[in-house]
Amino acid sequence: MEEEKKIKFPTTGTYDFPNLILGGEGKYVDKTDLLYQLASPKADAQLFISRPRRFGKSLMLSTLQAMFEGRRELFKGFALDSLPWEGWETPYPVYNFTMASAVGETYELFIERLAKLVKELCAQADVPYDGTGPVSGQFEDFLKAAIKKSPTGQIVVLIDEYDEPVAKFLDDFETLKKVRSVLHDFYEKLKINSGGIRFLLMTGVTKLTKLSIFSGLNHLTDVSMSPDYATLLGYTPDELDGPLRENVEVFAAKNKMDFVAAKKALLSWYDGYRFSPDSEKKVCNPVSLGNALKTGDLANYWEATGRSTMIVNRIKAADEIPADLNGMAVDPLDLDVCDAETMPIAALLYQGGYLTIKRVRPSGRLDLGIPNEEIASSLTKGYVSSLLRNGMADWGDELADAQDDLIEKGVETLLRKNLKAAFAAVPHEWNIESEKEAKRYFLLFMKLIGADISGERQSARGRADAILKDKSGVYVFEFKYGKTPREALDQARGKDYAGPWLDGDPPVFYVGVNYDPSKRGIDDPLTEPA
Description:
single chain; 530 residues; alpha/beta; Rossmann fold; Trna Endonuclease, Chain: A, domain 1; six-stranded mixed sheet; 20 helices; globular
């Protein structure tokens, strides 16, 4: 019997480029042409890029390390091998480290671990470690000694997870201030010694521009939204047709699909991330897609592997739910300017990978939305569970029931049964004190069960609170607080909120919803044809 062909799968857990290549088990999707462009002597030499967790940042840094160390044997068959890369002739000493190793539960432990990191760097460079004075001074001593010892008079510095040390202290601002002051002084030494650094790349999930960390790093060029590197991290649909085609075919065979159907299903679950307003190119989450190809199962791999401590802790501190996860309109600067104390929810969810750029408006503002089915699932298990804490068990059950009922029984059952149950399950400690707050939970619940709903839609005479589209019709919602469903419905009808949809084929309905604060729940919604 002919031996079954062994298929290499894209990496799901190997972040060391030499081991990936030499081990021969995993498949590396060639990004070395983009890395060459990124690290070329003609390019900026001091860079920053942010991406959500599990998007291949660590593997990218490991690949860059091998490039600068001149390990050409690892790049046979890849684009870089045929390019005039300087590392083939002039290797550089490379110092590649993660700031996650400096994370500590207390300020003192943070300082201890940061000093240990510097000691390890000194050992790697074979330079003396003094161990006295501020840790930022110890780091500068290392940089100066390593640069002086380098045959080229320059070194390469690659830093992963630069923002991790602050994540532990988002609910302890006094400690956070001390930690960020230390990190400011620590990172500032990179700027002071930039003449001896051939290439510096820092990565992380968030860009904490207002955190004084970055005031010490204002020489960095941020390429996070550059169209040139929109596909640097993650797999494109074209790569599913190319280097990953064999893997998609194996997935298709296991699931009794043809190639086109399998690709469509995989993209629906894991694609949709757009990282540049100036490029419409989108990418799949590489780790989640790799897991799906390897196991043959469409599943939520993100929640087990992709959550950022920074994001989750900030959500807990914010205690805020956006009104419409699929309808946020933001200025690009809103996604760029963040600070640890008041990080906007839009930036938080975008940088964390829960939202992505869906559309660029003519004005330049960005519409954000949920990228794919995996993240829609994770919003329930990750984002919302972090926010709701003890109330999640009840709400999680209601979400699952509502998803089934919406599909099997339709909107009327959802309104009569599930919506009322959802508000009945709201934890007692939540204080729904206004129409705006009640509507926020309503919209969030509807979004999380997969309803095609959008908030605050304009008509000629005003704004409908929400529009839900379903196979049974278009539902125009008006929400009230402490009044009646009839008053809500009459307002919607009187102001002709349904006008923009009346000329279409599907039937159109008005829905009046009222939250009764005395009962801490909603009255029976009222539905009538428009």
